[in-house]
Design brief:
2 domains; 4-stranded antiparallel beta sheet; 207 residues
Length: 207
């Protein structure tokens, strides 16, 4: 909804949520030009809404191919980037043409991680339902299991520049915050190896 900040009058509202009772609207709207992109999971999808001069909304497009669960899309140069999918197995990183709503490409970033110990074995992990943050012309990505990735995303490709594992903890769903070269990351669940509890971490990226 849009509210006049002076009078408190409602300019318009655009309902967008799942018909499923046990659902959430956790993805923030993305505003660019005179348009707003909204998205939700649970068979809801995404929609681009144009706000006309008289403050009435017009739907430009709708899609079921870009349903963001709790991460927020990033708009850059006419394209939207974000993680589509409700659950870990069906989550993927997608690039969408903001003019048409068509998916340009879709990737499910994965890699092999070897755990230390007597039963050390390689295991395939991924970003799953990650979060994106725009920084210095590229993207920082926090994966659902606590991985931090530096990504180069364009309409032509997905490229992983570097990757590190901050903490092996599930449900890393809180969007990181970058301020003056300091990255703030929330660990939401217990560390699987060190058993440290939920905490707020700060990483210095200024070097």
């Amino acid at each position: 909804m849009s509210i006049d900040p002076v009078s408190g009058r409602l300019d318009f509202s655009f309902p967008w949520r799942s018909r499923t009772h046990d659902s959430v609207n956790a993805s923030c709207p993305v505003v660019f030009d005179n348009k707003v992109f909204v998205s939700a999971s649970y068979r809801t999808g995404g929609a681009l809404v144009e706000i006309r001069p008289d403050f009435t909304p017009r739907v430009v497009w709708r899609t079921q191919e870009f349903a963001l669960h709790f991460n927020t899309a990033i708009h850059r140069d006419g394209y939207l980037y974000g993680f589509d999918g409700r659950n870990e197995p069906d989550a993927s990183l997608a690039c969408v043409d903001a003019a048409t709503g068509k998916v340009v490409w879709r990737e499910a970033p994965e890699w092999t991680e070897t755990f230390e110990g007597r039963q050390a074995r390689p295991q395939v992990l991924g970003t799953y339902r990650g979060s994106l943050l725009a920084a210095d012309g590229q993207f920082l990505c926090l994966g659902e299991l606590g991985h931090l990735l530096w990504m180069d995303l364009t309409p032509k490709r997905y490229k992983e520049v570097s990757r590190g594992w901050l903490f092996p903890a599930r449900e890393s769903w809180t969007l990181p915050v970058l301020s003056r070269g300091l990255l703030y990351v929330v660990q939401n669940t217990r560390d699987a190896f060190r058993e440290t509890g939920p905490r707020l971490l700060c990483y210095d990226l200024r070097a």
